[in-house]
Amino acid sequence: MVIGDESICTEDCECGSKQYFYYCNQGMIAVCFKCGRFESSDLPTNLVDIFLEDPTILMSLIKGDYFKALSDITDPDRWISLYTRIN
């Protein structure tokens, strides 16, 4: 296992593309930029509802670095704590 390895920081999407993992203080989310599907098991329900109503909000939060790519983490302890949440 290598920190930041894209094969660890993604999973297959139902559309055949990849979902990329992002994190913030409230939880993690997997996003497919091809079909727009996203999944989260630990984000607050009201936040997920907002993203379902207007997906551009999620994209703005990713572009604004509110959600950070799991592949960008360089601190091993932080990376392991987040990685164990998805596996």
Can I get a quick summary?
Helix content is 33%, strand content 23%.
What do these coordinates show?
This protein has one domain. It is 33% helix and 23% strand. It has three helices and five strands, in the order ββββααβα. Strands 1, 2, 3, 4 and 5 form a five-stranded antiparallel β-sheet that branches.
Instruction: Give the helix level as a range of percent.
Output: 25-40%
Cα separation of the termini: 13 Å
Which strand-content bin applies to the residues? 15-25%
The number of E-state strands comes to: 5
Q: Describe the main β-sheet briefly.
A: 5 strands, antiparallel
Task: Give the topology.
Layout: E1 10-12, E2 18-24, E3 27-32, E4 38-39, H1 45-53, H2 55-63, E5 68-69, H3 76-86
Antiparallel strand pairs: 1-2, 2-3, 2-5, 3-4
Helix pairs in contact: 1-2
Characteristics:
87 residues, alpha+beta, 5-stranded antiparallel β-sheet, 3 helices, 5 strands, 33% helix, 23% strand
